[in-house]
Amino acid sequence: MELKTIGTIGAGAPVQAIASHAARAGYPVLLSNSRGPDTLGDTVAAIGPGASAVTFEEAAAADLVLLAVPFSAVPAVGQRLGDWTGRVVVDMTNQFAEPDPYRGFADVAPLTGSEWVAEQLPGVTLIKAFNAMFATFMARDPRHEEGNQAVFLAGDDEPAKLALAQVVARLRFAPVDLGGLREGGALLQLGGPLSGKHFLLQG
Predict the structure, then answer these.
(1) Res. 3 pLDDT band, cuts 50 70 90
(2) In whole angstroms, what is the distance from residue 161 CA to residue 56 CA?
(3) HSE (CB half, 13 Å, CA atoms) of 63?
(4) What is the pLDDT of residues 141-191, one digit of tens each?
(5) β-strand 64-67 against 51-53: which pairing, if any?
(6) DSSP per residue over 21-72, as a string?
(7) What is the DSSP letter of 161?
(8) Distance between CA atoms of 91 and 59, rounded to whole angstroms?
(9) What is the arithmetic mean of pLDDT over 59-88?
């Protein structure tokens, strides 16, 4: 499996950070948000060549889709397509009960947050990644004198996870596989031991 194009559902600061690295690495980046492509002109210009503003459907058709919307908005996103079979989606969401401002915790036990997200996108291949990091840290050069910024991954589809790890490495981050969606996702979700933590790994 090779992931050649990157689409985004949501275009906030975390997505912009990853999109900028991806565009510099040569990936076509297809940005979408809830307000439509006409509202993304400044964002596309800031990211630069390789980025474009598209519709939700066009973004969702990319090889790799970054999902970065409020946790409460996920069911509506899932319903826009209905069938997500064959789509590889990176869950960048966090389990805040309320957005704007983000506050509270949306408890979906006994599921982890990512297991719940996967249920809202029937048929999806879901990988948890990029949610546990602050956008200001992700936007910086991942390469440091002490090592490269670690990106933790959790998912149940090994080929898809390996393909994402290759993308992460091409963006000059250091991918770290945490295992399955349940065990690894629990480490990464809001309130988990790796939430909001940043690590450098020596190559």
Answers:
(1) very high
(2) 23
(3) 14
(4) 999 989 999 999 999 999 999 999 999 999 999 999 999 999 999 999 999
(5) unpaired
(6) HHHHTT--EEEE-TT-GGG-HHHHHHH-TTEEE--HHHHHTSSEEEE-S-GG
(7) H
(8) 15
(9) 97
Packing angle between helix 181-188 and helix 113-120, nearest 10 degrees? 120
pTM: 0.96
**Pairwise CA distance, residues 200 & 203, whole Å:** 10
Domains observed in the chain = 6-201 (3.40.50.720)
SS3 128: strand
- What are the backbone dihedrals phi and psi of residue 69, each rounded to the nearest 5 degrees, phi first? -125, 165
- Residue length of the chain: 203
Q: By three-state DSSP, how is residue 78 classified?
A: helix
User: What is the pLDDT, as a whole number, of residue 69?
Assistant: 97
